[in-house]
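Q: Joint fold for the lines below.
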Amino acid sequence: MTSNGAPAGSAEPAEIDTSVAHAARVYDYLLGGRANFKVDRDAAARAYAAFPGGLDGVRADVRQHRAVLGRMVRYFVEDAGIVQFLDIGTGIPRKTAAKTLDFSRPTAVMLFGILHFFSDADDPRGLIGQLMAPLAAGSGLAMSHPQTPAVPSQTWVGAARKSG
Ligand SMILES: C[S@@+](CC[C@H](N)C(=O)[O-])C[C@H]1O[C@@H](n2cnc3c(N)ncnc32)[C@H](O)[C@@H]1O
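A: Joint structure:
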């Protein structure tokens, strides 16, 4: 363990504020990842203690949510033939964001567990429209949304394709 509570061996980039919990790192902790700090783990413990099944129950739900995301990606690749993705709110970035989307070919937009961060005043429907507008016919949109705040086991999941 390092001084700020990060698991030994994990890197702490200078621009990361480890004094305040961050949604992506809390989610990483719930998934069993290593890119989180004590402040994130404490925030998760406080936030989810009262949920059904407690923190362990939420962690199990979150793993299921991630598994659904994986199945959705497989559907787009194997059944829909889409091979490029725009994943909004992907969590802890694992690689440099892609700058090479080919807008002449279908793209799958993933909005998993992110829309509850936007209020009605943000016009999420309009934002989704802006994301989809430049994409080619046949592009896909997959969304998941908690039906009660932050309980993935009660999550709505949907997918659609853009017509020509
Ligand atoms: C519940 S996690 C879901 C992560 C991932 N999509 C998944 O399903 O495994 C929500 C993510 O949305 C990100 N997020 C929140 N507000 C955002 C915004 N305005 N723009 C981009 N990402 C955002 C958080 O940082 C966090 O990584």
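Q: Anything notable?
A: The CA atoms of residues 89 and 114 lie 6 Å apart. The chain has a mean pLDDT of 86.
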